[in-house]
Amino acid sequence: MVFEDILNDCLERVAGGEDPRQCAGRYPNHAAELLPLLAMASATIRVATSVRMRPEGRARGFERMNRALAERGGRRRSRVPVFWRHMAKPIVLGFALVLLTAVAAGGTTMASADSVPGDSLYWVKTTKESISLKMNGSDMAKAQTHARLAGERGDEMRKLISSGRLHEAERLVARMNHHLEESAMLAGVLLPVSQAEMPSRQPLVVTRSTVKIRAYLQQDGVVLKTELLQLWTEAPPGQKPMVRQIMRRTQLKYQIFIGALDDDGPRSGPFWIVEPSGRGPR
Amino acid sequence: MQGESDAQLSVQQAVGKAQKGDAASFAILYEHYYDKIYRYVSFKTGNALEAEDITAEVFVKMLESIHTFRWKGYQFSSWLFRIAHNLVMDHFRRRGRRATVNLDDVSPAAVGYTPDLEHQLDINLSMESVHVAMKDLTDLQREVISLRFAAGLSVAETARAVGKKDNAVKALQHAGLKKLRNVLVPDDPVRVVAQVGEVRP
Predict the structure, then answer these.
(1) Angle formed by the axes of helices B127-134 and A31-49, to 10°?
(2) Which CATH architecture has domain B108-201?
(3) What is the 3-state secondary structure (H, E, C) of A150-177?
């Protein structure tokens, strides 16, 4: 075995949590050369992984990607007059500048973005949300904001579950559902009690707003499902039923809303099975 | 191992759906790779805000060109890190010469140096000191060290990202670590005294 392979073997082991000295002991003839290099690698990994990631940076990046995704969709079937296409960029940039200034001025608002129910800054966050709902002019804009806020409640739910605050997380389910129901009502969608009882109704007029709402729901629903599933897997046996209950209730409303937007009519049989068994829900 | 292959499978599914324009799959890929890409970029730029911008740009580029990605014997992560690498290089070109720290300023004290074997195995480095030392490495060595230790890629993924064979990556990793050690810990007591019998098991 050449030294490069030995070094790599130890690097893999050290990355997996083994002490560098222990691994060097496996290769007594090379220990003197291995140890300094393993120590160097450990120190480098420590430095690289000590970088603090700001949640707001992550959220901004995500928003930027979604914007690009929406723009790409828009470009494909754009019927916007040329004048507005040229004007859009400066307007967006101007708006972003105003927004950035507001954000920079409101450090507290930013700090509150990560808060969960029970935190001292949580009221700042909910007040900001109420204001943003009031600032929305049209019903469709309000519907989009409610859909986004449902995702925000989901994020808070995940944080609460991972810190063991299950009862508080469960209380958020009702608030999340409230946002989804408000969003549906404002978008002109009648939500049935379940997808199995999908009522007949007038076909929904598909607009860019409903497409956007659907994209929010789809994204947040999938991310929440994945994260809750992960938490369910990691939860101690005593907490699993409650996490499963939260998963069921959140996924149910998301699926009903998406189904209603897709207008895919009544379904027979089980519409959505969230039954963690073995490796998790199907 | 099972978890790793499950994750790979779900990445594969997400990539397939994202190529068809599925928004949720882009969200899954973003969640899956954000941390690794961010660590890699911040390790290379040494600046948190710039790293956030570049990382965001990586995912926009991913979105724009994912339709060109093909599973031809290499993993999606390698493709994504190529994008990240190119954007970091563009960033350096735009910024001109990199902000530098004088090598003389990085004294052994600045890297937590203590002439004692026990402490020597627990070196405390700062991001700045590593940055300075990385400049002594060749481009390929630097890239391999960043991908392996900051992004946490495997040898195989790193090999595909830099377009080299696995053995070449192992050799580059060896040479890179050696050079880093020489720069950051010049009077290395470990090199002098470490023998198996003297090393605590």
Answers:
(1) 120
(2) Orthogonal Bundle (1.10)
(3) HHHHHHHHHHHHHCCCHHHHHHHHHHHH
Q: Would you call B23 an interface residue with chain A, using a CB distance cutoff of 8 Å? A: yes
pLDDT of residue B107: 35
Return all residues near B16 (Cβ < 8 A) that are at least 6 apart. Answer: B25
pLDDT of residue B75: 82
What is the distance between the alpha carbons of residues B120 and A64, in angstroms, rounded to a whole number? 44
Q: Report the alpha-carbon distance of residue A32 to residue A40 in Å, rounded.
A: 13
Q: Alpha-carbon distance A255 to A250, whole Å?
A: 9
pLDDT of residue A50: 80
What the block records as the tokens of B121 is: 């195995």
Contact at CB, A40 and B177, closer than 8 angstroms: yes
Residue type (1 letter), B187: D
Q: Is B30 on the interface with A (CB under 8 A)?
A: yes
**How far apart are alpha carbons A149 and A215 in whole angstroms?**
14
- Under a CB-based contact definition with an 8 Å cutoff, are residues B77 and B118 in contact? no
Q: How far is CA A134 from the centre of its chain?
A: 24
DSSP state of B58: H
What does the pLDDT read at residue B120? 47
Q: Which residues pair with A280 in a beta bridge?
A: A277
Q: For the domain bounded by B1-96, which CATH number is listed?
A: 1.10.1740.10
CB < 8 Å to A222, chain B: 24, 27-28
Query: What is the DSSP code string of B97-133?
Result: SPP---GGG--GGGGT--S-HHHHTS----HHHHHHH
d(CA A190, CA A177): 14
In angstroms, rounded to a whole number, what is the distance separating the alpha carbons of residues B10 and B25? 10
Give the ipTM: 0.75
224-253 in A: which are within 8 Å (CB) of B? Answer: 226
Mean pLDDT, chain A, whole residue set: 76
Q: Is-contact A219 A226, C-beta < 8 A?
A: no
Residues of chain A positioned with their CB less than 8 A from the CB of B157? none
Percent over 70 (pLDDT), chain A: 73
User: What is the chain B residue with the closest CA to A220?
Assistant: B24
Structure tokens at A252: 């149910």
- Cα B161 to Cα B144: distance, rounded to the nearest angstrom: 9
Which parts of chain B register pLDDT below 70?
A: 1-9, 73, 96-124, 187-201
Chain A / chain B CB contacts < 8 angstroms: 160
So where are chain B's domains? 1-96, 108-201
Q: Which residues of A touch B125 (CB under 8 A)?
A: 43-44, 46-47
- Tokens 């961010």, residue? B38
A51 closest CA partner among B149, B142, B133 = B149
Mark the ranges of chain A whose per-residue pLDDT is less than 70: 73-112, 190-206, 263-282
